[in-house]
User: Fold this.
Amino acid sequence: MLRGFYTAASGMIAQQRKTDLLTNNMANSNTPGFKSDQSAIRAFPEMLLQRLDKKSIPVENSISYSRFQNIGALNTGVYLQEAIPKFLQGDMQETGLKTDLAIIDLNGNKSSAFFTVQDQKGETKYTRNGNFTIDPNGYLTTANGLYVLDNQQNKIRLNSDQFEVSSNGTITGDGTRAQLGIVYSNNPEKLMKEGDGLYRTENNRELPNAANNQYRLQQGFLERSNVDISQTMTDMLSTYRSFEANQKVLQAYDKSMERAVNEIGRVNG
Assistant:
């Protein structure tokens, strides 16, 4: 009976965490370059239940021995193992702003190229969000103030907002010349999410610079989020129904336990 409590409760916890994941996807449906998360729900190992009893051999000075009889397998519940970003190319949205840049991957639908930025701690991070701006000191930064880096890991300083960015990431105009630091990952699913659209590698290893045939930049455009709103809404409803089903199982177990405590073994006067 108690095992049933744990199994139903684990199902509720897994579905609650999946709901949080889907809610975050929905909240970022308008965030440029955002990659939706997909959940991986796994089952705990099954247990094989056995009954131990004794059997006697009808001989003089009878002999008894223990034996195991299989009852069956019992699933011990599920858990949300991990959230994996879905690196599919988002749609392009034209903005007309020179500081807006979008990466178009040339290796199919999988997003593998990233902008290189520097966070407040001076560490290198990666992002698909090309919604950039120019700070008061003339540096190219992200919308939340992180410095955009070139291919030599240096900050990019512009002399004015009149500049052009070629398809390979070369910045020119008004005496400025720089090369955007575009890096490439063969396995983007292994990148760690940092929040605010940032990613890092395991052990903070730097990604290699991307080759020209792996990406193309589009100035005046932003890559939209790849969240499928209608599918996300459907998944949220399905997750809620699964949570509700586990909740009803838990309530049924609770009523059975209440009856066992209050009625079984009652001595009638």
